[in-house]
Design a protein that fits this description.
The complex is a heterodimer of chains A (about 150) and B (about 325). Chain A is of the alpha+beta class and about 150 residues long. Chain A is about 30% helix and about 20% strand. Chain A has one domain. Chain B has a two-stranded parallel ribbon with strand order 1-6. Classes of the chains: A alpha+beta (about 150), B alpha+beta (about 325).
Chain lengths: ~150, ~325
């Protein structure tokens, strides 16, 4: 039987204990990276069962966006990391993702005349490293050596 | 224990100041959880009690209910939106009472529809955004009690939907993300005319009070519109980073209470019931709500809260 929360007065000890008991669930959501989103919509119509499956792969600057994208029954697309917005256009959605996560999508940096390839090495923590180019990898290696 | 009274954060100076003080105390309290213990990458760092609410919101939002569909999650885009946030607000209220050592403290609300009656320009400089209240907009904001270095965002979601450590001042950017104005009184009045709480398909396309108030149907309505209008840190799944989050949701909760108490209205009803399919697990009347830093509860137990708190006004 679930306890009505008002029956419990929180304490630092109770908070620590509850968070510990729920930590596995929190950790699990940290591992939910997709890279591609398979969206399944189902309905019944005049005795027929309809399933529409749509696969989305979003790339920005050649790198895959890893969050979960959804489409509701009305056809609007949404992206879980920006939960209060929906879009009629997936492109508009991706533009907004770039706006909302400035740390992940830094503005294009003009090439440094001394190191002309360095502008390619913008780090995008929200995106897969799978598509990192050999040039980017070599730049990162050089930086680590320094 | 007597029910506490929740009042208007703009007009009740004492409640506002207690809220600000309490948030800062919770932001400075560390009970043991760390970034490592919750799977957040980077060096191990203690997570404050306030920031645990941010993690909780993100975890609930990241839990699809069920995982075979892509719309409803454990706190949004489905019937549980209102009871889950009521549960969250109550937990915050109890923790604020604890650190303030004041059991009479009631969480205040921001009556955003009142500000929605102002001109678009005046909405951006309404009293709530003044330095003595919540501060204004900026990247980061530079006025008010939640400006850096007094208040720093430590955990946020990144574009992949993962929690990451960060260290920046609170960000707000009014009216630049597609919502040029706040909701108006006519919009809240429209919510109160909804006859049903919720109905199939129980998601972001449903007709009914919950989805009207959450802001999916009609699109970019009420609750969602407030998040989008404020912008900045109110946009990602870690939106409780901005203490105004709880003022928005307290007003959402007040509108729900107004709907239930409306003379001749539906009363304290909820749907779906327990006889609905397992695909609605997490959203039915006696299903367990997602929790993190407390015991759990059910939508049923969130329907009548008058023994815990009351609102000073149900004029929404």
């Amino acid at each position: 039987m679930a306890t009505r929360p008002a029956e419990e007065t929180p304490t630092p000890q109770s908070i620590a204990a509850y968070v510990k008991s729920n930590s596995a669930r929190a950790k699990k959501t940290q591992q939910m990276h997709h890279g591609e989103s398979m969206v399944t919509r189902e309905t019944n119509y005049k005795g027929h069962h309809i399933i529409v499956r749509t696969k989305y792969e979003v790339e920005i600057d050649g790198q895959r966006l890893m969050g979960h994208l959804g489409v509701n029954d009305a056809g609007s697309v949404h992206y879980h990391p920006i939960p209060n917005m929906s879009f009629s256009s997936a492109l508009d959605m991706v533009r907004k993702i770039i706006d909302v996560f400035p740390n992940d999508f830094r503005p294009e940096v003009p090439p440094n005349p001394m190191h002309p390839m360095e502008h390619h090495s913008r780090r995008m923590p929200g995106m897969t490293k799978k598509n990192q180019t050999s040039i980017e990898k070599s730049v990162m290696k050089k930086r680590r050596r320094k | 224990m007597a029910a506490v009274t929740r009042s208007n954060v703009v007009t009740n100076t004492a409640a506002r100041q207690k809220y600000i003080n309490g948030v800062k105390l919770l932001k400075a309290e560390f009970t043991g959880p760390t970034t490592v213990s919750l799977g957040i990458p980077g060096p191990s760092a203690k997570i404050s009690t306030y920031d645990l609410f941010i993690v909780w919101h993100h975890v609930a939002m990241s839990t699809l209910t069920p995982s075979s569909q892509n719309d409803r999650n454990a706190a949004h885009r489905g019937p549980v939106f209102l009871p889950w946030h009521r549960f969250m607000l109550r937990q915050l209220e109890l923790n604020l009472q604890r650190v303030l050592q004041d059991n009479s403290f009631g969480l205040p609300y921001w009556d955003w529809a009142a500000d929605g009656q102002l001109s678009a320009a005046a909405q951006k400089t309404a009293p709530i955004w003044q330095g003595g209240n919540f501060g204004g907009q900026g990247n980061p904001i530079s006025t008010g009690p939640f400006a850096q270095p007094q208040f720093v965002v430590k955990i946020e979601a990144n574009s992949s939907g993962s929690l990451v450590q960060t260290n920046h001042g609170l960000r707000r950017a009014f009216a630049v993300n597609g919502a040029s104005t706040l909701p108006k009184r006519t919009n809240t009045a429209g919510a109160l005319t909804q006859a049903k709480y919720d109905q199939a398909p129980w998601n972001s396309t449903s007709l009914g009070f919950r989805n009207y108030l959450e802001g999916w149907n009609p699109a970019l309505g009420l609750h969602n519109r407030v998040h989008v209008w404020i912008g900045g840190d109110m946009l990602p799944s870690t939106s409780p980073n901005d203490p105004i989050f709880f003022m928005n949701h307290c007003n959402v909760d007040r509108i729900w209470e107004a709907w239930m108490q409306k003379p001749g209205g539906p009363g304290r009803v909820y749907a779906p019931g327990d006889n609905e399919p397992a695909a609605l697990n997490g959203h039915r009347l006696h299903d367990t709500l997602s929790s993190l830093l407390s015991g759990t509860t059910t939508p049923s137990q969130m329907l009548n809260i008058t023994s815990l708190y009351v609102y000073d006004s149900l004029v929404v």
